[in-house]
Specification:
single chain, alpha+beta, Membrane-bound Lytic Murein Transglycosylase D, Chain A, Glucose Permease (Domain IIA), ten-stranded antiparallel beta sheet, two-stranded antiparallel ribbon, 4 helices, 14% helix
């Protein structure tokens, strides 16, 4: 013979089988002797996109954009953040990068404008930093792992094998926009901004020789190689174009 409590548990199991866990944010079970609450949390569906990021202490806009493969400039605009992109711990950032097209003023062609000669277009002014030049290899050594072009692949750069303490160089001229360990998968990480289009990253270092805000020149030593929890000493090197990972071998010079 079932007790009152056993019967309640049995009825609860029937309810759960009937509606499923995802449909129930929580379930309350009242027992005879005292009231008990059983909370069944709804797990996040694997297809549910993350649209909000809460800033942790020490995080920068560039590190957050790197985490989500986003263009930092667009991420800043979407959240109304202006340069120098300072963030506060606990700040909420939207990851939905929608842009509103600027309204165009209608142009009415006059008779005189038709007769006049067309004006030559103004030359475009480059926004790249002074000194931006051809890319150079960030470290000496053989490539032990290459860039993966698959959309769902996690390896979006090159692994260059070497020795602990070996020099790591800036692959191009730019400004250090991140230096730290806020992205665990990268260990001690440096991110360098080269212009409005390109960023580069240098991961798994044993020591960082530059800090955020430092200007670096192409070929300048910026770190020492390490392994940061990986199985062997190497530099993990990535390049992002408007937030999208690109194969570094497409811009680095061919090895002789």
């Amino acid at each position: 013979m079932l007790s009152h409590n056993d019967g309640a548990v049995k009825r609860l199991r029937v309810v759960i089988r009937g509606v499923g866990l995802i449909a129930l944010p929580f379930i309350l079970l009242a027992c005879a002797d005292s009231a008990h609450v059983i909370v069944v949390e709804r797990p996040q569906p694997p297809t549910e996109k993350i649209n909000i990021h809460w800033v942790s202490p020490g995080e920068t806009l560039y590190a957050i954009a790197w985490r989500y493969n986003m263009d930092p400039e667009r991420l800043a605009r979407a959240n109304g953040i202006r340069s120098p992109y300072r963030l506060n711990a606990g700040q909420q950032l939207t990851l939905i990068l929608t842009t509103v097209p600027k309204a165009r003023t209608p142009v009415v062609a006059s008779q005189s404008s038709v007769v006049k000669k067309k004006k030559k277009p103004s030359p475009q002014v480059s926004k790249r930093f002074d000194g931006f030049t051809a890319w150079q290899w960030p470290a000496k050594g053989n490539v032990s792992r290459r860039f993966s072009s698959k959309s769902n692949a996690l390896h979006k750069g090159l692994d260059i094998r070497g020795k602990r303490g070996q020099s790591v160089y800036a692959a191009n001229t730019g400004v250090v926009v991140y230096a730290g360990t806020g992205l665990p998968a990268y260990g001690k990480l440096l991110i360098v901004k080269h212009n409005e289009t390109y960023l580069s990253a240098y991961a798994h270092n044993s020591q960082l020789l530059v800090k955020e805000g430092d200007k670096v020149k192409v070929g300048q030593q910026i770190a020492e190689m390490g392994k940061s929890g990986t199985t062997y000493e190497h530099l993990h090197f990535e390049i992002r174009k408007k937030g999208v990972p690109v194969n570094p071998l497409t811009v680095l010079p061919s090895k002789k």
